[in-house]
């Protein structure tokens, strides 16, 4: 850590230490107003800086490590994060081959990645995730993680490294590196021309990547100094010595995406969103017919909830139906534009009221099943002790129970103002952050243990 501090901060005006948010955080050692940290592009890791670094390293192995791994691991559609992961795996292979002498900074950072505790699902065992899939088959992000783990690519990569260079790179170490890179990347501007044109790169920024996320208490932000091509961390207001530096990873906090990527649920004051699979996943009279209607009309199968947090607690929630007309099938069988154009206000209110009651019955069912799964997680004998999926289950229990409590309190019904105490019909700025829908009759093969 001292090596990283020396490289990235002239006077070591920052330090890394335990955070009240959990894990480690970045702190200022003295009163600061303005620039906190300045990091040269050559001390960051993007696919471009990694390419330049790989050219400098004398890799006389046969076949060449980086080139071979890129061909083996990145042979699908281009993905910036995946390529960056491949570079970091390649650098670790070179280190184990003794090829990184003189690259102390890189070796120090590889240690950081390999020792970082990650709370996301990449460290959970497949049988546990498969059991969750049985509980919640419509969660597209969890499904993607499970499919990636089931693909066997980590074990294939470990075997490829062993057979090609006679180096032992354990599967759990590869998984750790993958999870660490994904959880620590930032989107950093890069100047691409003299005309003030910029691109955004997925980048690992040592030291800066210890800064935690908190949208309500954010006191710093990072930007590019176009004159020097350096990444600069700046205070939004004067900070006293010992203050933790808090930045924003994203302005809109989609809770499932935050957990899958970073391994935590933000509980700072303010609004957050979460998508819950519904159409095609809750079975009731006409459910199959309505699920088919939603699919044909290309409406989301997910219902999005806007959550309000205060003092770390979920204090309120709303069903966000802005630009979501999946409920139109409850009014009539015609296409959505026709239904919504011809429907009366009473019909729309009636359909929304029916939807709220359906969600209530669905969540009541989910509470019991989620509680059973939480107990299963407690009893499950995980080899390495990671049961991060339990965080997801506990979050959903909190969501379900809050909704049920609110339904009991306000009893929303058609024609009453209380209906819109639970339904949000404005707020189009949230819509683009909805998760991809998973239509449950478009099945996929799931491996079983």
Automatic annotation (TrEMBL):
One term of GO molecular function: protein-lysine N-methyltransferase activity
PROSITE patterns assigned to the protein according to its UniProt record, in alphabetical order: SET (PS50280)
Signal sequence, renumbered to the chain: none
Domain SET: 127-250
Protein's name according to its UniProt entry: SET domain-containing protein
């Amino acid at each position: 850590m001292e090596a990283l501090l020396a490289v990235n901060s002239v006077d070591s005006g920052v330090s890394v230490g335990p955070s009240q948010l959990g894990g480690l955080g970045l702190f200022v050692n003295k009163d600061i107003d303005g620039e906190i940290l300045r990091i040269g592009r050559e001390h960051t890791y993007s696919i471009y800086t990694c390419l330049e670094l790989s050219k400098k390293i004398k890799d006389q192995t046969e076949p060449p490590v980086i080139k071979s791994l890129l061909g083996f691991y990145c042979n699908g559609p281009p993905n910036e994060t995946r390529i960056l992961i491949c570079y970091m795996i390649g650098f670790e292979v070179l280190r184990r081959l003794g090829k990184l002498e003189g690259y102390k900074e890189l070796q120090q950072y590889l240690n950081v990645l390999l020792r970082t505790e990650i709370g996301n699902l990449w460290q959970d065992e497949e049988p546990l995730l498969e059991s969750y899939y049985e509980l919640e088959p419509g969660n597209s992000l969890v499904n993607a993680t499970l499919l990636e783990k089931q693909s066997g690519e980590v074990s294939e990569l470990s075997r490829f490294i062993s057979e090609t260079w006679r180096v032992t790179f354990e599967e759990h170490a590869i998984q750790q590196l993958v999870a660490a890179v994904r959880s620590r990347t930032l989107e950093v501007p890069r100047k691409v021309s003299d005309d003030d044109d910029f691109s955004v790169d997925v980048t690992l920024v040592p030291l800066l990547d210890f800064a935690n996320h908190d949208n309500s208490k954010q006191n710093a932000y990072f930007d590019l100094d176009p004159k020097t091509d350096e990444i600069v961390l700046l205070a939004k207001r004067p900070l006293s010595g010992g203050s933790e530096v808090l930045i924003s990873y994203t302005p809109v906090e989609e809770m499932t995406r935050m957990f899958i990527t970073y391994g935590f649920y933000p509980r700072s004051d303010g609004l957050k969103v979460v998508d819950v699979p519904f159409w095609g996943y809750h079975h009731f009279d006409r459910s199959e017919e309505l699920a088919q209607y939603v699919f044909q009309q290309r409406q989301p199968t997910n219902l999005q909830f806007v959550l309000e947090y205060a003092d770390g607690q979920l204090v309120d929630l709303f069903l966000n139906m802005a630009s979501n007309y999946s409920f139109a099938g409850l009014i009539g069988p015609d296409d959505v534009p026709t239904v919504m154009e011809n429907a009366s206000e009473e019909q729309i209110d009636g359909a929304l009221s029916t939807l709220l009651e359906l969600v209530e019955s669905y969540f009541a069912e989910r509470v019991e099943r989620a509680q059973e799964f939480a107990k299963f997680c407690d009893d499950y004998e995980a080899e390495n002790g990671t049961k991060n999926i339990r965080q997801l289950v506990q979050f959903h229990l909190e969501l379900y129970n809050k909704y049920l409590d609110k339904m009991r309190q306000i009893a929303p019904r058609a024609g009453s103002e209380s209906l819109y105490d639970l339904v949000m019909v404005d707020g189009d700025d949230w819509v683009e952050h909805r998760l991809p829908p998973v239509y449950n009759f478009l099945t996929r093969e799931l491996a079983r243990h």
